[in-house]
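New to this. Please check this fold:
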Amino acid sequence: MNVIKKSSNNFSPFAKLLHWGFVLLFLYGLLKQIDSINQLEDENLLMFEIIFALAFLLLLIIRFVYMKTTQQSSIPEHTSKSQKLAAKIVHYGMYICLALIPFTGLIIGWLFWLDLKDGFLINSVIAIHEFTVSIIYWLIGFHIVAATYHRLKKDGVWSSMVPFFKE
């Protein structure tokens, strides 16, 4: 009989707070997003967007450094190399996208503030911004599917980060 060894790694309460806090922060960012670049004419909104983007980037850096220096993956050792590689690609891809979204947003705001409200440059940055948002949706989808797979497999990965529906 082949016995699956459950992962003994469990993320710290602070790591879980960072993970689920980012879920909420990202959802808030989606809900409050602007519908048109012309809304940035409102200086208060432009300033709020700048502060939100800078705070998001700062928290993302803190999260990345904390996770890389203090936490270990909960993926069991026996997991295939291809699954481990896929997990790394998705996680690093999410970090890259989560950084690029506010970074390109800041560039859009800066260009708008410089009165470069139309043209190739700002349209290119907007395209990168929108493309990155599309990619993050896919990566989040892959992340959720993988987490659900591990929940069904009962290998400890789900329970290492998710505070509900424990295995």
Q: What stands out?
A: Confidence is low (pLDDT under 50) at residues 1-8. Residues 120-153 form the longest helix (34 residues). The CA atoms of residues 110 and 116 lie 9 Å apart.
